[in-house]
Every structure is written in C-alpha cells, then in structure tokens.
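in:
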C-alpha cells in the first residue's frame, strides 16, 4: 500500500484514559463513589501526563507521523472562569514534543470528560454550556493556536442519542426481567435460584438509588447530565451548537486552523426486510447532523464494526462471528463502507480519528490494521479526500466503566511499573507512514 505525501498515519488517546489523576473531572468524581458503576478507578491511568515524551518518542521511532490527543478541560478550567496557565503550558510542551519528533499534533478539546462545576450548572442539557464551551475553546486557541494545524472540538458528539437508544432497550429488558422474576417467585416460592436472581436485581435497584444520592451530593442533582448520558433531542442539538460556537471562536483567532468534529459511526447494514431500520439508524447517527457541519474543514470518522438490521430491527452479530473483548464483531471492512457513505453526504475532508480493536492477540490487530488500511487506500484511489488514519489506541488504557480490562493499544503498559512495551502492531502501522 502507498499513501500520498502528507497523509497522516498515527494513533489516538484521550486525556482521562491515559494521563492519570484528573481530579477535577466528572468521571473522576463518579469513579470515587461508593456505589460507582466503574469496575475500578482511573487513578494514575498510564501516567502519560508525566511520560508523554517517552510515549511520543516511541511513536516516532516506529514511524508514526501524527498523534491525536485531547486537552483536558477540567485541568485547564478546574473552577468556573479560573484558567490554569500551568496546565496550558503543559499541553504546549506536549505539542512541541510532537513537533520535535516529526509528529503532527491533532488536538481534541473535549473527549467525554467535563469539569465537575460544569455538570453542577446543568451539564450537557443546559443552554449555558454552549457559551462555557465557546469560552474554553477560545482560551485554548488563543494560547496554543499558533502551534496547531488541526483541532477536533468534541469527540463522538453523537454519542448521546446512541446511549439514549441503548438505555431504552435496557429499560425494556429490565421491565421484562422484573415481570419474569415475579412470575418465577410466585411459582417457585423461595427456591435458591429465584432468590439469587431476586437479590441481584434488588441490589442493582438499591445501587441505583444510592448512586442517585451520591450524585446529588457531588453534582447537586441525582441525574447529572454528563457528556456520556442519554441525550434528549434538545441536548443533542445543544452539543452541536456548542461545536459551532467553538469552531467560530477558533476561526476568528486563527483562520488557518482546520477545525472539525468527530462522530461515532457504525456500518449500518440491512438484511432483507431491514432497510428501513438501517436507514433510520444512519440518519440518527449521521445524516441529521449535516446542517451543523456546514463550514467545518473536516469530519472525524470513528468506526469499529458494523450493525445489522433485519425486519424486526437491530440484530445480533452473526452466529459464530469472531468477537473482540468489547463484544464487537471483528469486521475491519466496516471502515471503508463508512468512509464511502459519509463522503456521499459530506463534501469536506475526512480523517479517521479512531479505528481499532480490543484484543490480546496482536497478530489479529495487525490483520485488522492491514484490512482497514486497504479500505482507506481503495477510497483514496477513487478520489475520496481522506487525510489521515488514527488508530485507537496508542496504548492499553482506562476503558471508562470497564476499567483496564480492554486492550486496544499498540503499546502495552505494565500497570505496576508503568513500563511501556511496543507491540508488533506499532511498527506495522508505522511502516505505512511513508
């Protein structure tokens, strides 16, 4: 495979997942709660905040020429209106370290985590957040814009509606399970198996109540609207208006910076009879956002697998399909399909800002990368303006509520010593960077 000169081949991280000790963020607060839904707290994570130079040098040595990372809003503005100059200087040093090693920095301003104070003021359903985010984006651009060519405003800005759909399905399943459990209890009395299920279900309900109380203490509300919450249609629009406000603020200061947003996109495939469901899913994930993207310089595509739809709606993965640690179907061909479909509707440049696989089998990761990049090359040969590919992730890291159990990384990290070890996939990916 041959990619054009200037094509970015890199890897991606998110600040909260790798830096460690992000003590002013909403996620950190939730991780510390006695009835947390997180398997474990992030703690020091991968200590990337202190070890970024080592990590960037490893990337460069392997041949990678781009690094997508996020700036942590909760570090920059730990209290409302109080900006931390020391923290902005830290990120300046990260950017300069990239430059010194021949690596193009691609910065994301908001990758899921928010300052606690923002959530206390209504979070991602509050109108005030549009101005708060614009102000933060303008501050970062004013301080760092002279050293940047690419800024992603918000990571997976469409995540809220996806979570809302999952939440609706889960609630229905829970209601069905509760009804079934009651019927079993009536039939079987206090048999051990029924009591076991009952105890687990009640404990889950009790934990939800405790979590509500703990949220109220920390955030001032039992249902905080963090970024990764089920979104209302109004909140969905608000996120994209925040993106527009941030984009315009950045452009007003540095017109030459290329600004875009990133979206989580599935390869929505219709089985016979499932065409209407597949089309509706694609519209919800992508098409209805197009009016908000007018004026963006690029679109960041983030894809990991496909989703199948049949006559009854979403279907499970095919029987016998290879599944990753995240229970995604192993399907690297999805990336090419998504690129082509997005390009048909979006006229600007495309950057693959995330694509990867959670697996302990690095040989499987190498095969995934090869097939994904073959799809990218095919798109380029047809004139589709793809400008870069950022693999997720640079290193094994904190996979949100699942903790450190998911291994997405091109680099392994010993959690006891923080020692880094490059996997063969790191060198393999770097070999395509010209």
């Amino acid at each position: 495979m041959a990619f054009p000169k200037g094509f970015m081949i890199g890897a991606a991280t998110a600040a909260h997942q790798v830096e460690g000790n992000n003590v002013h963020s909403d996620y950190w607060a939730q991780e510390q709660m006695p009835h947390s839904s997180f398997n474990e707290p992030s703690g020091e994570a991968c200590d990337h905040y202190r070890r970024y130079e080592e990590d960037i040098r490893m990337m460069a040595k392997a041949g990678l020429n781009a690094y997508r990372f996020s700036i942590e809003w909760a570090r920059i503005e730990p209290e409302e209106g109080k900006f931390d100059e020391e923290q902005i200087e830290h990120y300046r040093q990260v950017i300069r370290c990239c430059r010194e090693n021949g690596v193009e920095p691609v910065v994301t301003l908001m990758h899921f985590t928010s300052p606690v104070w923002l959530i206390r003021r209504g979070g991602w359903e509050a109108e005030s957040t549009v101005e708060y985010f614009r102000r933060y984006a303008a501050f970062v651009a004013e301080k760092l814009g002279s050293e940047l060519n690419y800024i992603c405003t918000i990571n997976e800005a469409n995540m809220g509606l996806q979570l809302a759909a999952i939440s609706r399905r889960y609630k229905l399943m829970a209601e069905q399970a509760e009804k079934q459990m009651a019927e079993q209890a009536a039939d079987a009395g206090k048999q051990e198996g029924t009591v076991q299920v009952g105890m687990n279900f009640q404990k889950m309900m009790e934990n939800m109540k405790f979590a509500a109380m703990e949220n109220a203490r920390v955030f001032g509300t039992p249902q905080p609207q963090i970024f990764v919450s089920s979104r209302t249609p109004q909140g969905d629009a608000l996120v994209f208006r925040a993106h527009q406000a941030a984009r315009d603020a950045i452009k007003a200061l540095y017109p030459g910076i290329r600004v875009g947003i990133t979206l989580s996109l599935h390869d929505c495939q219709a089985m016979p009879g499932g065409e209407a469901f597949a089309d509706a899913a694609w519209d919800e994930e992508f098409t209805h956002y197009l009016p908000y993207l007018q004026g963006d310089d690029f679109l960041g595509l983030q894809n990991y697998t496909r989703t199948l739809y049949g006559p009854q709606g979403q279907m499970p993965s095919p029987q016998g399909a290879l599944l990753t640690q995240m229970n995604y179907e192993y399907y690297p061909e999805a990336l090419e399909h998504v690129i082509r479909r997005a390009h048909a509707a979006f006229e600007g440049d495309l950057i693959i800002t995330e694509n990867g696989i959670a697996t302990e089998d690095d040989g499987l990761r190498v095969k995934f990368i090869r097939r994904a990049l073959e799809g990218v090359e095919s798109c380029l040969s047809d004139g589709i303006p793809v400008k870069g590919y950022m693999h997720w992730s640079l290193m094994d890291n904190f996979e949100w509520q699942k903790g450190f159990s998911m291994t997405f990384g091109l680099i392994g990290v010993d959690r006891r010593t923080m020692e880094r070890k490059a996997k063969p996939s790191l060198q393999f990916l770097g070999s395509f960077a010209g």
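note: The CA atoms of residues 123 and 154 lie 14 Å apart.
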